[in-house]
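sry for the spam today, last one i promise. struct tokens for design, 290 residues
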């Protein structure tokens, strides 16, 4: 009888791949406890000779970590919630409602995914800075001191809609049986009630998957946050602050501090993944089955 067990070398490949993926993360953690002189040694060791916890205190002071952490958290949570709302609502409309031009609209949304995101940064920057009636601007978007870019809205609004999110939610909602929706309509339920009470609870795995993607992308995004920081330095996020620290000071002296800041910056992402892991795995499995 043929065994269903995988060959032994499959396990070897998985173990080696896992070690290669985990090693940089472990190096970051242990380097955050090293002194600057030990980090600069050519004779590399993974474990520090002496654990220096003072790096975390200095990272908080040098990086203004509380401000950076607050800006990153506000930005990432706001973008994630907005994307979940806009993507699920648009996905429901494109998956379950009928209207002229629906396929044209869907293809247009798909086409936005084919362009690199940085192509839209400069146009979005000018739109944000010259947004009418915001930040001191007049009706023509002139005369102000930064428009939306002068407030935290500049970090959030340009990313409130995601073409990938709409595509993901639309594909997931197509699999929902129309019989549930028709039964609710016969009982007199309106579309918004059907959306919030029937469709959304059934798409929890897809919502969790999209939430993880969007939160990580927003948390790690650098270029747009750097542009907003050039307008208002109070809007700096963790990636911008860490990069500015590396550029301003001697790398041989600040690298352990940077590693400590990166460890702190990684904690929210790990907590989010641990909290939503079962929904994420279920969403990936359902996507694979489809």
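last one done:
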């Amino acid at each position: 009888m043929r065994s269903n067990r995988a060959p032994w070398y499959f396990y070897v490949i998985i173990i080696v791949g896992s070690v290669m993926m985990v090693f940089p993360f472990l190096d970051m953690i242990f380097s955050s406890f090293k002194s600057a002189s030990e980090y600069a040694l050519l004779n590399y060791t993974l474990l520090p000779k002496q654990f220096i916890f003072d790096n975390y205190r200095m990272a908080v002071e040098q990086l203004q970590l509380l401000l950076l952490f607050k800006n990153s958290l506000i930005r990432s949570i706001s973008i994630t919630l907005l994307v979940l709302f806009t993507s699920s609502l648009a996905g429901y409309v494109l998956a379950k409602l009928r209207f002229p031009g629906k396929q044209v609209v869907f293809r247009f949304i798909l086409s936005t995914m084919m362009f690199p995101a940085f192509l839209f940064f400069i146009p979005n920057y000018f739109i944000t800075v010259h947004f009418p009636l915001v930040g001191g601007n007049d009706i023509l978007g002139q005369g102000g001191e930064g428009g939306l870019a002068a407030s935290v809205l500049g970090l959030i609004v340009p990313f409130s809609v995601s073409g990938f999110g709409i595509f993901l939610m639309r594909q997931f909602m197509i699999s929902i049986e129309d019989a549930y929706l028709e039964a609710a309509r016969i009982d007199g339920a309106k579309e918004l009630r059907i959306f919030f009470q029937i469709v959304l609870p059934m798409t929890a795995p897809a919502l969790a998957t999209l939430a993880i993607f969007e939160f990580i992308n927003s948390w790690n995004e650098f270029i747009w946050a750097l542009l907003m920081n050039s307008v208002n330095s109070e809007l700096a996020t963790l990636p911008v602050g860490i990069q500015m620290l590396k550029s301003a000071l001697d790398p041989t002296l600040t690298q352990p501090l940077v590693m400590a800041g990166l460890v702190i910056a990684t904690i929210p992402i790990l907590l989010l993944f641990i909290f939503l892991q079962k929904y994420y795995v279920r969403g990936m499995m359902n996507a694979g089955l489809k």
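The radius of gyration is 24 Å. ok im logging off now
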